[in-house]
Amino acid sequence: MPGEYVYRGVHYCFVHKGVDIDMMKEWQVRPSDVLLATPPKSGTTWMGEILRLMRGFHPQLSEDEDSEKLGMLPFLEMELPFLPNAVKNKDNIPSPRFIKTHLPYEFTKGKVEQEGLKVIAVLREPKDTLTSLYYHYCLDVLGYPGDFHQFFELVRQDRLIGGNIFKMARDWWQARHLPNVLVVKYEEMKKDTAAVVRRVGEFLQIPLDDKAVGDIVQRCSMGEMRKSMADQTKDKNGKNFIDVNQFLRKGIIGDWKNIFNEDEVEFVDECVRKYYDPLVSTSTCD
């Protein structure tokens, strides 16, 4: 991966350059702050769009503010040509501040457990996550040259950018008992998006009537998100930083069956047994 480096046991790449991963300690939590936390390719863009649209109904939103002009949720740990870093711009983001991260739980643990930072954590079946992550690695901007089975060796070696997805999912799942943490499964979002939108709205105390829920669901379809993302990912020259159709590829359940071999399936199943307690392995990863 271009510009790859290791910090505190986690692999990062060029999109993290120039960003102090530990800057989160400088973040002064406001009561209306919301953090979207996910392992990579676990529904980040989908839930991020739900939250972006939901923010427009937030009771603390200024009457003269157009929430949608804020665009995509900024990352804590990345700075992209179309997306300023959240921590560097923390004082310029109007409340309520909605931000996102792929960082391991320990990087935000103090803010979550001691300062009450609200978190929406999205978890996805790990084989589907890895399938989607492989195709993400193949984006032109990242340029991974190998096939899936070569990519899977990075999984075995614990060399994925952003860290160990099994550990990350386990840690957020174990934090689900905290009153300020809501864990959502990607598969729940696929089954009944409207129910998840209502659940998130209730958790964040954002009032949503049936029309608002319906509008959010409609605007978070794959087609609508591709249009929205194409508008939001342009650099200063008006060129798209990524191929939106590659980035939002399928979003389906079970695509791993088309690419995993038996040995890779067994490796992931063993990781599930190793990292997740029985409740997680039956409710999140089956």
TrEMBL record:
<protein>
    <recommendedName>
        <fullName>Sulfotransferase domain-containing protein</fullName>
    </recommendedName>
</protein>
<comment type="similarity">
    <text>Belongs to the sulfotransferase 1 family.</text>
</comment>
<dbReference type="InterPro" id="IPR027417">
    <property type="entry name" value="P-loop_NTPase"/>
</dbReference>
<dbReference type="GO" id="GO:0008146">
    <property type="term" value="F:sulfotransferase activity"/>
</dbReference>
<keyword id="KW-0808">Transferase</keyword>
<dbReference type="InterPro" id="IPR000863">
    <property type="entry name" value="Sulfotransferase_dom"/>
</dbReference>
<feature type="domain" description="Sulfotransferase">
    <location>
        <begin position="31"/>
        <end position="274"/>
    </location>
</feature>
<dbReference type="Pfam" id="PF00685">
    <property type="entry name" value="Sulfotransfer_1"/>
</dbReference>
